[in-house]
Give the backbone structure.
Amino acid sequence: MKNTATISRRSLMAAVPLIMCAGAATAASDSSLMVQRLNWSGVRLRTGNIDLLIDASSSENTPAPLEPAASRTFALATHHHGDHLDIGLLQGELGDRGYLVIHHDVAALIDLRAVKVQTVDLYEPVFFSRGSGAFAAWCVPASDGFGDPQTSWIVDGGGRRIIHCGDTLWHGNWWKIARAYGPFDLAFVPINGARQIGGLITDVQRPMMMEPEEAAAAAAALGAKRAVPIHYGFSAPNYLEQDNPEERFINAAKKHGVKTKVMRSGETMSL
């Protein structure tokens, strides 16, 4: 029979911080993560009484705020384009106590007077709220089809971890992101492979964000347990979306062994 060692006071005191951290981690994972699809690329996350918006933008069919209302709302944006960063919408959503977090290169392209803004570097952790840490988030590399600064956002909350990819192109950081921050319970990936024509941009027959098959491959490279398609369902004379992006994405994801979940505007699910 193995001898039982006597625990010294010093050993016990050294273990206290570890015990406290373990308890905090357990408490943080007690709350589930609620996910609501908004419009276009927008997502609302909720754990406990904290809401976190990612790439929220408004339209005629913007989903109504969830009831009961969260006690505090914060926001992230992958880049400054108006269909991903809607300052007018955020002014109403964030109120006096919320704020927007973006990469500092993105902040250089918006009017910082309209909402409270906190800027961060790549891989720098940010907490919502700063006191509770109900959500932790990191921005990681992405690639913009217009040459503008863009990131993807990783969010941890309610015992779950998601990644929101904005409207990125295919790039080579997927595997590093997966190794450093995975596994991901959910990946939001843009799928419409659109070409936008006008001004400086001439049509050279190349997509400015991931095509459906690339989005499925990205979800596979990330090791996502499930992928939600975003950023599709709109075409205009100077904005050319590829045909059947949703069907193509689902079929490609099946080939990669990636589960998919199509969420309509306003739809919610719990993780």
